[in-house]
What we know:
By secondary structure, the protein is α+β, with helices and mostly antiparallel strands.
Amino acid sequence: MATTSHASIKSRDGVSTLVDRWPLLGQRRPLVIYLCAIVALDLVAIMVFASVTEFRWRDVGTFAALMACGAVCIEATRRLGMPAGVSRDLLSAWWLPVALLLPPVYALFAPIVLQVLLQVRVRATVLHRRVFSSAAIGLAGCAASLMFHWFVQDPLMLSRGSGPAIVYAVAAALLFSLLNIALIAIAAHMANPDITWREVLWDRESVLLDIVELCLGVTVSIACGLNLALLLFALPPVVLLQRSLLHAQLQAAARTDAKTGLLNAAAWQREADTEIVRARRTGDALALLIIDIDHFKRVNDAHGHLVGDQVLAGVAATLRSQLRDYDVVGRFGGEEFVVLLPGADVHEARQVAERLRTRIGHMAIPADDALVKVTISAGVALMSVHGDELIDLLAAADLALYRAKELGRDRVCIPAVQPPPHALPEDAAS
């Protein structure tokens, strides 16, 4: 399973391949090795801690009650669905109490139970992602549990309001969050080395959510330690918060393209219109780029649509990493991308386009026994030079893109400015 060499089940004309059936085999070799190592480590930890743990009915009852609360949260948000890609939830409100109140083996089992429910009841995603998520969360929970029980001999001290116990609980929750983030960030960076570590490790919204999860987990742990019946009072606010969080994520997902994470065409157009109105009012420069992947159909025909989707995601990640936070980038459809550069004049626009062309040209996506490399062509249009409306800029940039393809692709073009028509003499006009 750690190899990237694949035997076809059918020919390319038959569409189905081993990679299509087992997407893990289409990933980069270091990523496959890493995912398998984390899952193997999780399985070893389960066997080791299960062999040394004395299972007591009280612990089993507490574990079942917390898992039941997690299941209720999942069922309560099931009709909302879950956005594609990486999404956030508040299930740590139930995983953390398991880690703090019970032996470490329960922290290893907890994510398996809830991830199976998510896969079956909410969204069936690629299996290896679910398995890896369960393993990463389980290992993080196990480490947090070991750390907390090392310093706090009796977990019930937490429910008695013991200051040191609460401090250690917060520290264990921080360890859980940091370790989980680190394990997933390493996988994300291996999947796409073009993404910077800052992008995979630091996000203001994610940090705020981590703090909320930490507070919820410690609070539920204290309530659960006092009396399991108090979970009935903790459950409704957690369900409400989770529904609100998923609703916000689904709203954001409606604005983004599922394959690339960039703005979709409609959302990009709304934001581009806003920027153009602002530039027209202030008199600032503004440039628009249309970028097209050269011979993209050949990639799909030769390697399959799974690899084609990875190419799209790689190009999108490169665009994000090379552009400013306030540049507006989106997927316009197919293999075409659009970028709006506020404040950019002709020299800066060309420089940015050339940098994107070079970086994407150096990008490589693993497929079968080869690396897929692509090039891009780009057309550039400038506000007040090629038009003052979005539709005029798009038309000018599209014309330049067509010219770049005519000249052999893998290049950047800017349309020539047509001189204004000469006024007719008055006698001719009459």
